[in-house]
Amino acid sequence: MENGGRRYVAAHQNGDFIVRLPCGQPGKKNNSLSLFCVGGHFAVSSLLSTPMFRKGILSIWLVFVLATGLVTGLTASISTASAGVLSDEAAQWGSDAKTLATAPLSWEKPDWFWFETGIALTAASSLLDRRLYRQWNGASGAATFGNGWALAAPAGAVLFYGMQGWLGDDNRALRTAGMFAEAATFSVLAAGVLKVATGRERPVAPGTNNGQFHPGNIGDARTSFPSGHVALAFSVVGVLSAHRDMPWWSAPVAAVAGVVTMFARIRDKRHWASDTVAAALIGFGIGNFVASQRDSSGFRPMMVSDATGIEWRMTF
Questions:
Q1: Among positive and negative, which fits the CA dihedral 315, 313, 151, 198?
Q2: Most distant CA pair in the chain: distance in Å?
Q3: Which residues, other chains included, contact 167 with Cβ-Cβ below 8 Å and sequence gap of 6+?
Q4: Full 3-state SS string of 130-192
């Protein structure tokens, strides 16, 4: 269908109803809308099997280890069927980790387009690094909320759906808990790897707050890029956007709260603006990928052989 020169596509495919809005075609000039179509596979090439070095990121990750451990313990005590869910989740985590780590090896033109779009958005946001650094100072209730949300949202989701699955003997709820736990864990791992790989100076680092990069540095003063808190917050948005059982308003609300987290990390002088933009793309991309591996419904970037854009899919 044509509308104002833009082609909208609606079709049925394998029991799914799909609506696609192409933002451009590989190899052809893309319009300004393309800059806002954020790719689901942004930065997954950075997800490698490497130890966590930064103390702060490790402590955040441990929150999810404990939360996931609680759900695991409850699940194992229910029934053989629930134990099967746990086994399936473990296999899914392994499969997803392999897919994420090796994704660039199988990327095609649309995938590279999304990756390059993410790089462009991050680079563009770096123009605001200095301005926003000088813009905000002092205590802020919104910043306090944003910092707390980054931890409370994913941990709360894991515990809520884990308890729902346990009390209601609901295997689907247990799998949903597994989605949030996996997305959060992989997002923190990806952020941690990039922190060490880039070694960017934090805004508050004494004498070294120029935002320069020192690859391989693991000191806290040089672990600014990207933000682990923001990656966590947007991993929740990614899962919500691709999961068919979530209320339509859940992803937008979580996205707004995630933006508040971005504000909090910038205001507290813990990160540059570009650190938070990159982290948001990483968290959303990983969360969306994790959910889409289990559930074919929801909103996600469209990557097909002849076009790129955004897609909404519903499974009946």
A1: positive
A2: 59
A3: none
A4: HHHHHHCCCCCHHHHHHHHHHHHHHHHHHHHHHHHHHHHCCHHHHHHHHHHHHHHHHHHHHHH
DSSP letters spanning 223-284: --SS-HHHHHHHHHHHHHHH-TTS-TTHHHHHHHHHHHHHHHHHHTTSS-HHHHHHHHHHHH
User: For residue 39, with 0-12 CB atoms within 10 Å meaning exposed, 13-18 middle and 19 or more buried, which class applies?
Assistant: buried
Give me the sign of the Cα torsion angle 215, 218, 219, 222.
positive
d(CA 58, CA 41): 24
Q: Which amino acid is at 102?
A: T
Residue with tokens 């075609």: 25
Quick one: CA dihedral 75, 177, 148, 224, positive or negative?
Answer: positive
First-last CA distance in the chain = 23
Task: Take residue 307 and report the two structure tokens written for it.
Answer: 């076009």
Please count the helices (runs of H) and the strands (runs of E) in the chain: 9, 6
Domain ranges of the chain: 40-295
Helix (H/G/I), strand (E/B), else coil: 309: strand
The whole model's pTM is what?
0.71
Residues 6+ apart with CB under 8 A from 294: 92, 175, 179
Which of 57-66, 139-148, 235-244, 291-300 is least confident?
57-66
Alpha-carbon gap, residue 271 to 279, rounded angstroms: 11
Taking the domain 40-295, which CATH number applies? 1.20.144
User: Per-residue pLDDT tens for 239-261?
Assistant: 999 887 888 899 999 999 999 99
Residue type at 82 in one-letter notation: S
The answer on pLDDT for 79 being more than 60 is: no
- For residue range 274-299, list pLDDT tens digits in order: 999 999 999 999 999 999 888 655 44
User: Residue 296 has which token pair?
Assistant: 């074919």
Q: Give the closest residue to 182 by CA, choosing from 129, 236, 109.
A: 236
